[in-house]
TrEMBL record:
Keywords annotated in UniProt: Oxidoreductase, Transferase
Alphabetized PANTHER family for the sequence: E-CINNAMOYL-COA:R-PHENYLLACTATE COA TRANSFERASE LARGE SUBUNIT (PTHR48228:SF2), SUCCINYL-COA--D-CITRAMALATE COA-TRANSFERASE (PTHR48228)
Protein's recorded name: CoA-transferase family III protein
Gene Ontology MF: a single term: transferase activity
Superkingdom classification of source: Bacteria
One Pfam family cited in the UniProt record for this chain: CoA_transf_3
E.C. no: 1.2.4.4
Native source species: Peptostreptococcus stomatis DSM 17678
Gene: hadA
Top EC group: oxidoreductase
InterPro entries reported in the protein's UniProt record: CoA-transferase_III, CoA-Trfase_fam_III, CoA-Trfase_III_dom3_sf, CoA-Trfase_III_dom_1_sf
Length: 403
């Protein structure tokens, strides 16, 4: 299952994690060539069951939600609530490079799988821990999901809502994916240092910090008085917002070089040369008349359908995009031209679409897509390779410690 020729070929990861944020880190590492061994509890990763909320099938032969977070891994089942189960994990760590987890600290302390213990028994291990709120502070032991730690407390949800409206319902997994790719980057830095020293490291990323980092410009702006949420009628500059078109579609314009682009925008896009030289023609002046100018522009954009506006903006070289639905992303030729999405036939015989992780390599291209493991599929294979004898395996199985 190792991806031959990829950058992390020969690296072994023990993933003791569930849900999204840490498992997507594991998937990234697997895509980059690492052997990732996913440990599930005896009742299974919750991701095997929750997809029904988003219309996914959740049976053994077709489980896209589990698939998209866990493809390319080997799967084993261990009861980590037992001393014998924890000892099995330590056997696996003997020949591993990375231990990846999003288990809460108190549970790790109880099981003896916290960093301090792992460092004593396996000092070569890079210990990658995906946290909710960070290592310190009053919320450090709180349960966390991206809905709460990332979107809510991190300020993301309030930044996405229209001022005076209600908060949006966040996109499940969005914050998890950003935290996961951040943790993967940290792991690679630690792996590079380990090559020099032979010593492990602890790498942590939290959902909360990921949100604050992503919101960093706006959080810093708050210090100087800029407040969110805002309304689309009062954006940072009057052309840098969304506009409704004649066919009820919405258009986003990114008007970042205001003074430079303004004359061409007026002449060739909206055909209002009378606005050139007006109080709206420079950024310094326009920020004092934002809502007033947005109202003028709304009356222009509502005159034509979105495709006509796209053609005009494209010809003018001004950045824009239609506000796409997920259905439209699913068939976007840009996705398929760049391998953002993959068609995958499940064992049910149904064809589905799964996403590709976003880091691509030119010289060391990925191999074929490898499906996610079935529940406990590789337990025997992995434990045998770790030196667990046949008799030990049967004893662990008889006690229900492995499946």
């Amino acid at each position: 299952m190792t991806k031959i020729g990829l950058p992390l070929e020969g690296v072994r990861v023990i993933e003791y994690a569930n849900f999204v944020a840490a498992p997507i880190c594991g998937r990234l590492l697997a895509d980059w060539g690492a052997e990732v061994i996913k440990i599930e509890p005896t009742f299974g990763d919750t991701m095997r069951f929750v997809g029904i909320q988003w219309c996914f099938p959740t049976d053994e032969k077709e489980n896209p939600m589990f698939e998209i977070e866990n493809s390319g891994k080997k799967g084993i089942v261990i009861d980590t609530g037992t001393k014998e189960g924890v000892e099995v994990i330590y056997k696996l760590l003997d020949d591993a490079d990375i231990f990846l987890t999003n288990t809460r600290q108190k549970a790790l302390d109880r099981s003896g799988l916290n960093y301090e213990e792992v460092k004593k028994r396996a000092p070569h291990i890079i210990y990658a821990h995906l946290l909710g709120y960070g290592e310190n502070g009053p919320a450090k032991d709180n349960p966390a999901f991206d809905y709460t730690a990332y979107f809510a407390r991190g300020g993301v949800s309030m930044s996405l809502m229209e001022k005076g409206g209600s908060p949006c319902n966040p996109v499940a997994g969005l914050g998890d994916h950003y935290a996961g790719i951040s943790l993967a980057a940290g792991v690679l830095a630690a792996l590079r240092k380990k090559e020099e020293t032979g010593k492990g490291e602890r790498v942590t990323v939290s959902l909360f910090h990921t949100a604050v980092f992503g919101m960093g410009i706006m959080v810093s702006a708050a210090h100087y008085g800029y407040r969110m949420p805002i309304t689309r009628k009062n954006p940072p500059n009057p052309i840098n917002t969304t506009f409704k078109c004649a066919d009820d579609r919405w258009l986003q314009v990114a008007f970042m070089q205001y003074d430079k682009w303004f004359p061409n925008f007026c002449n060739t896009v909206i055909e209002r040369p009378d606005l050139i030289g007006s109080k709206y023609s420079t950024m310094k002046s326009a920020v004092n008349y934002v809502e007033e100018f947005v109202e003028i522009l709304e009356k222009e954009f509502i005159k034509r359908p979105i495709d006509e506006w796209c053609a005009r903006l494209q010809a003018a070289g001004i950045p824009y995009e239609k506000l796409a639905t997920t259905d439209e992303v699913l068939v976007d030729e840009q996705c398929w031209a760049n391998d953002c999405l993959i068609k995958h036939t499940f064992e049910s015989g149904n064809e589905g679409v799964v996403f590709n992780t976003p880091v691509m390599f030119t010289e060391n291209k990925r191999g074929e897509y490898v499906r996610a493991p079935k529940f406990g599929e590789h337990t025997k294979e992995v434990l045998e390779s770790a030196g667990v004898s046949g008799a030990e395996f049967e004893e662990l199985k008889e006690k229900g410690i492995i499946k």
